[in-house]
C-alpha cells in the first residue's frame, strides 16, 4: 500500500471515505517537507511506500522551498503534484502557473516541470490522470528509485470546463458483478442502492470515463447525448 503525506487543498478530502488515501496533513506546504523529514529520520527504505501529494497552487505558494531543500540536502522520495490548473479549494483563483492574473488577464505561465528541473530534480514526469495504467506504473517505478522523483498528474478541474456534456456512462446491471471497483475513485455520481445494485446518477455524471477504465467486466458503457 502506498501512503500519502498530504497537504492543503481539495485533495485533503481524500483522507476520508471512500478514498481514505491521505495519511498525514499538517499545514499548507508541509507534504514535501514531511516526506523529507521521514526520510532523514527513518531512512530511505522507510519512505519507499510513501509519496508527498501537493496541488499545483499549493506547490507554487509554499511547496517550491521544500522541494529545493530535498535536493539541497540530498534527499530521496516521490512527490506528486496534482495539477488541475486552478486553486480549486478556495474559489478557483488563478496562480502563477495558470497563465492568467487574478483579474483574468493573460500573463506568463510558469512551467511546473521546468521549474522542478531548474531546482535540481532529475526525474520529472507528466502524466494524464485518466491514463490510470500509466499513472500506476509511473508511481510504482518512482517509489522504487532512491532519488527524488516528481510526478505531475495533470487534468483540469471538472468545474473549469463549461462546454456542454456530450456523453455519459451507464451501468449494464446484467454484466455488473457489484465488485465496487468503479466506486473506488469516489465519484459522487456513482452510488450503491440498498440491494447492492450500483447506479450512475445521470444528473451528476460529466462523462469523464474514469469509471469505465476501472471496470474489468465491461459493465459500464458510454452513451452519446448529442
State the main characteristics.
single chain; 226 residues; alpha/beta; Rossmann fold; Alpha-Beta Plaits; 20% strand
Counting DSSP E segments of at least 2 residues, the number of strands comes to: 9
Structural class category: alpha/beta
Q: Which class of the largest domain in CATH terms?
A: Alpha Beta
Spatially, the strands of the biggest sheet line up as: 1-2-3-5-4
Q: Point out poorly predicted stretches.
A: none
Q: What is the approximate shape?
A: globular
The total of helices stands at: 5
Tell me the helix content: 10-25%
- Provide the β-strand percentage band: 15-25%
CATH third-tier fold name of the largest domain:
Rossmann fold
- Averaging pLDDT over every residue, what do you get? 94
Proper CATH architecture of the largest domain: 3-Layer(aba) Sandwich
Order of helices and strands: EHEHEHEHEEEEHE
Distance between the termini: 41 Å
Largest sheet: 5 strands, parallel
Cα Rg: 19 Å
How many structurally independent domains? Answer: 2
Protein model, in words:
The chain has 226 residues and is α/β, with parallel strands linked by helices. The chain has 2 domains: 3-160, Rossmann fold, CATH 3.40.50.970; 167-224, Alpha-Beta Plaits (2-Layer Sandwich), CATH 3.30.70. It contains 5 helices and 9 strands. The protein has helices at residues 30-42, 56-72, 112-118, 132-144, 210-214; strands at residues 3-5, 50-55, 77-83, 123-128, 148-154, 167-171, 190-192, 198-200, 220-224. A 5-stranded parallel beta sheet has the order 1-2-3-5-4, sandwiched between helices. Strands 6-9 form a two-stranded antiparallel sheet. Strands 7-8 form a two-stranded antiparallel ribbon. Helix 1 packs parallel to helix 2 (56-72). It starts with a strand and ends with a strand.
Amino acid at each position: 500500500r502506498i501512503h500519502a503525506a498530504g497537504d492543503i487543498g481539495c485533495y485533503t478530502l481524500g483522507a476520508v471515505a471512500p478514498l481514505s488515501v491521505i495519511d498525514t496533513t499538517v499545514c499548507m506546504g508541509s507534504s514535501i517537507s514531511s516526506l523529507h523529514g521521514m526520510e532523514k529520520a527513518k531512512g530511505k527504505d522507510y519512505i519507499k511506500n510513501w509519496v508527498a501529494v501537493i496541488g499545483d497552487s499549493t506547490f507554487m505558494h509554499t511547496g517550491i522551498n521544500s522541494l529545493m531543500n530535498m535536493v539541497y540536502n540530498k534527499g530521496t522520495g516521490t512527490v506528486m503534484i496534482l495539477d488541475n490548473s486552478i486553486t480549486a479549494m478556495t474559489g478557483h483563483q488563478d496562480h502563477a502557473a495558470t497563465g492568467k492574473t487574478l483579474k483574468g488577464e493573460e500573463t506568463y505561465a510558469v512551467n511546473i516541470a521546468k521549474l522542478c528541473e531548474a531546482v535540481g530534480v532529475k526525474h520529472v514526469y507528466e502524466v494524464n490522470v485518466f491514463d490510470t495504467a500509466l499513472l500506476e506504473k509511473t508511481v510504482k517505478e518512482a517509489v522504487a528509485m532512491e532519488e527524488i522523483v516528481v510526478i505531475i498528474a495533470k487534468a483540469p478541474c471538472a468545474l473549469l470546463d463549461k462546454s456542454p456534456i456530450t456523453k455519459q456512462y451507464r451501468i449494464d446491471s446484467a454484466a455488473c458483478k457489484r465488485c465496487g471497483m468503479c466506486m473506488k475513485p469516489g465519484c459522487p455520481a456513482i452510488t450503491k442502492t440498498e440491494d447492492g445494485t450500483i447506479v450512475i446518477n445521470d444528473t451528476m455524471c460529466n462523462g469523464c470515463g474514469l469509471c469505465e477504465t476501472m471496470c474489468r467486466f465491461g459493465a459500464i458503457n458510454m452513451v452519446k447525448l448529442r
